[in-house]
Amino acid sequence: MKRATAGVSPSSAAMSSTARAASLRPMCPTNGHSLSCGVIKPPRLNRRRTFTVKAQADWSQPPQQPPPGKAAFLYPKEKEGLQGTLSDLPAGMASVGAVGVLGIAAIVGYVVGGKAPADVRNVGRAVGTAVGVGSAAFAVSKMGEARQGGAGVDLYNTLVAKDDPGTLQRYEVEEIEKKYGVNMSEKLVSELKMVYDQYLDSMIPRGAELTGSEPEMIRSFKEALAISDEDAAAVHMDVGRRLSRLTFESENKGAEAEARRAFQKWIYISYRVFGERQSAFLLPLPRVFGLNQSQIMVARRDNAKSIFRSKIEETGAPLQADRRFLEALKAYQLEIQLKDEVASEVIMECARRRVESSLDAALKNVKERSRKKDYTVALREMEGVLEFNRQMDALAAEGSDLLPAGLGKVTIHGGVFEMDVSSADQRELYKVFLEERMALDGQMTVQLEKDLEDMMIVLALGPKEADAIREEVASKMYRKLLKEEVTSGRLDAADSKASVLQKLCDRLRFRPELASQMHRSIFKQKVESILAADDKISDEMDVELNRLRKLMCIPERDVDEVMLETVGGRLKAVIDDALAAGIDNFSEQDRKNVRKGMDELRTPPAMAKTILEQSVRQAFLKFISQSRLKANRLEAAKELKKMVFFSNVVVSPMLEEVKGIDSSKMAAAQAEFEDTLAEAKRMAEAEENAKKGESSDGESAGDEASASTDPEAMPSSLKKSKEGAESFKESDEVGDVKMSSQKEITLKEDLDLRDRVDIYRNYLIYCMSGDVLSMPMGGTVVLERDTSEFGRLSQLGDVLGLSPMDVMKVHTDMAEDAYRNQVKAILADGMLTKEKTDSLSEMREKLGLTKEQGDKIVRGVQNEALAQSAQSAKAMGDLDIKKILDMKESGVDINSFTSSEFRKSLYQKEAEKAMSDGRGEFDDEYFLEQLPEDLVIDKKQALRVVKDVALSKSKLLTVQAMSDLRMKKFDNVIQDVNNLMVCIKVADSNDTNGVTQWERREEVLDLFSVYYWKVKDETKVTEVQNLFGVSDAEADPLKKVVDTGGLKWAEEVQQEDEIFF
Question: What angle (nearest 5°) sits at the alpha carbon of residue 944, between those of residues 940 and 946?
Fold first, then answer.
């Protein structure tokens, strides 16, 4: 037995030898495949040049491709020498000839052996006969082998003679075997493997995809050869090695990729030929090629997927939603061993390509340029897409196992069409479909809505995009139908115009709110066209506008908005011209121009007032901006005064004009209103005084509020402001111009309250300080204050939109600030004397502050001084809890200069002090209720602090007591025990903190004896007994010893006292 190569099985060695033999064989000139045994007879070359013209050749038809396996068997083989002669002999004659050769050889051997000496002649004859027969047998054997080899040549030539070697049948091979009297599957295994090798190699396409028929053809060819699965698997592995080797021997990346794809095709074919189960042990791919199961699965999946796609495309038409076709696809899927999820991808991809082709045709029809738009093709293609989707969805809903996976509605999302076209093209297709269907149906039907929803899915549009297109198309259609209703007169003749409009909306499924917006837009366009033609609205046009408004049921609110947007802009220009005249140039003609513009533009007073208000507020803001840009407060105040004059001289008359009220009548009405208000105020004050007289003569909680409403308790600056405003009501003239104030147009909505209050305060300071006159050489002179400025201050408050409370607060704050500064100056010199008190009272009365307000300010200043002193004491470390409580009692806000953590630390120190005084007493109400409230500490946090202190101290007090006991400091022992009892009570703990764990019990009993000796309080003794866990059986003898004077420590103390004295 020959030794096999290490690590390689004998079958593998045989395969290797086969591969080496194949590498030495001549190669096929067409596909480079090696040819098997025998001599290839090359085609005879005609050395003579001849030119032959084939008259019947049809060059328009492409040349027919030979079958895949034909490339492996192009040229026949020839039998050499004796093999040809022996092959021609019948099997019976060959057997007779073999017997004859053996007989002749035996005779010859016998004759030759008879020539030996007489004594060995018989032996010589026997030996000669044996040698002759043996030699003849060897020769017959070789001739038999030569003759049997002819069977392989005949098999090869049979394949060459066939147009398609894959059509080889088993009976043809059996006839060859019968002719040569040999079983080729046993005697000519190598020849069969070579033939199978060539056929298998030729069936793996290079540069093309598998058709799917290759595995079945190879399996049929293998069965015709009757080659065993083991031998066939060896051939498959040889082909796989060659293909794998090509991936490393390729000259470029393209060749390498192609070789890799051929290797993956070989994997798929091999698994199909042998089946899933047999391939697992017949084809050791992981061991030979280092492949894992994932790589094998990918190769099989990709090729099966490609074959499945080719099966769908081979019909030459897109994927059909036909049951028979789909059922055949499902059967083919199972045949090629393709999983459902992969088949689903292919089905969806092919379905998407069909939809994309239809949509592409529709898009071309939409984009083509022509004089008349005809979207018939586009509509037909898109309706075909919807029909295809409905059929696919219906088949998917069946859930039949006979149908492939992946059926259902198709969308272009993720496909080539979506990437190639823009989103605008997708929306355009959707729009065209909707327009064409609406033109055909004349209304929005239920079916059309369903089709639109399906088309939205197909075109991968979002709901918002689809709704926008639907609204756009419906809007155009609604406008068209509305125009027909108006021009035909049907809408005018209708009893209920709203009902007609609602029917149009229902017909088109058009939202009523969108219809209202369209009506508003149409009305606006009509107004703009009228104004563009004549710059005014005539009586005829006014009637037409009212008719249009009634026809389209436009609400009054929308009409006002449209008129404000259109007519308002023209009236605003007139008003702006009048306002631009300013204080110096404003005249009666400007008022007349505004009135004329209102009449020509048919502007109602309310709208005119709104437009005037917008323009005036912009003018007011310009004055405010100019005042803020001024370098000093005086110049800023002058700009504010200009704004007040502008409001009185220009704004107030124009406001009267747009409202259509006579100034004299308005003044009379205003005076009557104010008289009525004053009378009501007097009656209310009288009723309030009567209630106060009945209730009590002393002060009450409402004194401060009543004082603030009393004119005598009003700040002096506010009194002057009101007095100035009252004087202006009688006569307010600047030169020849008579002014009147207004409160309707303000800056309340344009400026924050803080900004308006600051502006008012700055002008108030200007009124209180007076004007400044610049002198030569840089000097200035403060002029006497003009009391009329306080009247302008009141009018400024009206322009700023300040409420009486806001104004009152500004004056009160300034008066309180002035009084507070005076109090600080007086108290800075020392204590508050009677003379200083009288001076402050006089100052308070001048400022118009109540006694309560003044006293509050004085207390506040005093508290600030105390707080400052406390802050200094805190910085020096002299601030203790007693000082804090004294300041709190004096009314000082301790939160203003101490932090919560600082007060907690003082509280903790006070608690530690109470638990360390040795008295054994702890006031729960004081420490847990009163003291936290005085120090502004949360009571829960205070309880937590006290417990933490108690727990921390109780851990050390037992050790301290035992230490003092050992040093015979009996008084300290009593204090330690008392403190320990306090800590245990505060901590609410049953734990004796180490006493029960004290190793020396006799020391615990000694401690109890000393406490009983020093303290005669039975209650405390009982508490100590329970605390230390001393039982009555232990306590009674100890008490008896102490009572009888038998305690040794008591005797020692007595002796020491006697020796000392």
Answer: 115
2: left (phi over 0), alpha (psi -120 to 50) or beta: beta
| Pair 704, 769: CB distance under 8 Å | no
Total-model pTM: 0.54
Identify the CA nearest to 153 among candidates 73, 77, 72: 77
Q: Which of the four pLDDT bands, split at 50, 70 and 90, describes residue 57?
A: very low
- Cα 48 to Cα 44, 51, 52, 117, 605, distances in angstroms: 12, 10, 12, 70, 117
Question: Which of 2-11, 127-136, 308-317, 582-591 has the least mean pLDDT?
Answer: 2-11
Contact 113, 72 (CB under 8 A): no
pLDDT of residue 464: 92
Can you tell me the distance from the alpha carbon of 526 to that of 106, in angstroms, rounded to the nearest whole number?
A: 133
For residue 918, count other CB atoms closer than 10 A to its CB.
15
Give the DSSP letter string of 784-839.
PP-THHHHHHHHHHHHHT--HHHHHHHHHHHHHHHHHHHHHHHHTTSS--HHHHHH
- What is 111-146 written as a DSSP string? HHHHTS-GGGHHHHHHHHHHHHHHHHHHHHHHHHHH
Contact call for residues 201 and 33 (beta carbons, < 8 A): yes
Distances in whole angstroms, Cα of residue 819 to Cα of each of 708, 837, 870: 17, 12, 25
77-78 and 780-782 strand pairing: unpaired
Cα–Cα distance for residue pair 678/748, rounded to 1 Å: 26
Backbone φ/ψ region at 705: left (φ over 0), alpha (ψ -120 to 50), beta: alpha
Reduced to 3 states (helix: H, G, I; strand: E, B; else coil), residue 667 is: helix
Residue 782: count other Cβ atoms within 10 Å of its Cβ: 10
How far separated are the first and last CA of the chain, in Å rounded? 129
How far is the C-alpha of 889 from the C-alpha of 907, rounded, in Å? 17
pLDDT band at 1061 (very low <50, low <70, confident <90, very high): very low
CA nearest neighbour of 109 among 144, 143, 137: 137
Q: Which two tokens stand for residue 994?
A: 């180490």
- Residues paired with residue 39 on neighbouring β-strands, in sequence order: 78
Give the span between the Cα atoms of 690 and 628, in whole angstroms. Answer: 50
As a whole number, mean pLDDT of residues 674-683 equals: 58
Residue by residue, DSSP assigns 762-773 as HHHHHHHH--EE
Rounded Cα gap, residues 614 and 592, in angstroms:
20
Q: Identify the H or E element spanning 78.
A: strand 77-78
Distance in angstroms (rounded) separating the CA atoms of residues 341 and 102:
70
The dihedral built from the CA positions of residue 176, 178, 182 and 185, taken in this order, carries a sign that is: positive
Number of H helices and E strands in the chain, helices first, is 47, 6
Looking at the DSSP bridge assignments, the partners of residue 734 are 737
Close Cβ partners of 312 (under 8 Å, ≥ 6 residues apart): 319, 329, 346, 350
Q: What is the DSSP letter of 778?
A: G
pLDDT (tens digit, 9 = 90+) per residue, 966-1018? Answer: 787 777 777 777 777 778 777 765 444 434 445 677 777 777 777 777 777 77
Cα–Cα distance, 919 to 819 (Å, whole number):
53
Q: Give tens-digit pLDDT for 849-859.
A: 787 877 777 77
Residue 231 makes CB contacts below 8 A (sequence gap 6+) with 189, 192, 193, 196
Q: Give how far Cα 320 sits from Cα of 338, 356, 391, 393, Å.
A: 20, 14, 10, 13
Q: Is the pLDDT of residue 594 over 80?
A: yes
Q: Tens digits of per-residue pLDDT, 932-958? A: 777 778 878 878 888 887 777 777 777
User: How far is 386 from 359, CA to CA, in rounded Å?
Assistant: 11
Contacts of 559 (CB under 8 A, 6+ apart): 523, 549
